[in-house]
Write a structure and sequence with these properties.
Blueprint lengths: L1 H32 L1 H15 L4 E7 L5 E7 L6 H11 L1 H10 L10 H8 L7 H6 L4 E3 L9 H4 L3 H4 L5 E3 L12 H13 L3 H16 L6
Parallel strand pairs: 3-4
Antiparallel strand pairs: 1-2
Helix pairs in contact: 3-4
Length: 216
């Protein structure tokens, strides 16, 4: 009985290691293939809004460990100050932010940033996070520490897998959903996690991006 249990644990560990290894090599390969368009986007950001072209932000990952999540910079440099003043003078906008942690008309986003967000091109640098083993291709969206309380008792479930470049939330409406629905989708993904589900989400991501479902 003990040997069977030990074998099952060993098998799961091997599958997890194999998946992570495949994802890392795939991410590196995609970064190489996408080198030229990444360079073009970086130049466009630098010419229109200066540097830096990449934005890194502390997020909560696997087992609750913090890591720097990479994106192309889509906001002005003094984004936090602008957001604070905007929320103070617009109660309805402050309520939208409190509910979803996103704004449909965010005053911090640059014109080129709007294009990158609507096409999800701003998230391509997260391939770096996958190559480093901090993220997966599919999983919950990485959250910031201020959002931990929003997950409540479900936070350990969120931490039980790596956050993903895409996930169930992204193909289920994204910003058209409430934060509570987002948490529920993350929990559903973790509890139903399988290779088949990951493939299904990956395939659904393409039309979701092209049709800009829930993008802001």
């Amino acid at each position: 009985m003990y040997r069977e249990a030990l074998g099952a644990v060993s098998s799961r560990a091997e599958k997890k290691f194999s998946k992570e290894l495949i994802e890392r090599y795939l991410a590196i390969g995609l970064l190489i293939l996408a080198a030229f368009p990444l360079f073009v986007i970086a130049i466009a950001i630098a010419l229109t809004d200066g540097t830096p072209v990449l934005f890194r932000h502390r997020r909560i990952g696997y087992r609750g460990q913090e890591f720097y999540c990479f994106k192309f910079r889509t906001m002005v440099l003094d984004g936090d100050g602008i957001l604070s003043k905007h929320l103070e003078t617009n109660p309805s906008v402050a309520e939208e932010w409190r509910t979803t942690r996103k704004l449909r008309n965010d005053p911090r986003v640059t014109w080129i940033g709007k294009i990158l967000r609507r096409t999800s091109l701003d998230e391509i640098p997260q391939l770096i996070n996958i190559a480093r083993g901090e993220m997966s291709f599919v999983g919950p969206r990485p959250i910031v520490s201020a959002e931990i309380s929003r997950y409540g008792e479900h936070f350990p479930i969120y931490c039980s897998v790596k956050p993903g470049l895409t996930g169930l939330w992204q193909v289920s409406g994204r910003s058209n959903t409430t934060y509570e629905q987002r948490v529920a989708l993350d929990v559903e993904y973790v509890r139903s996690c399988s290779l088949l589900l990951d493939l299904k989400i990956a395939l659904l991501t393409v039309p979701a991006v092209l049709l800009r479902k829930g993008s802001v």
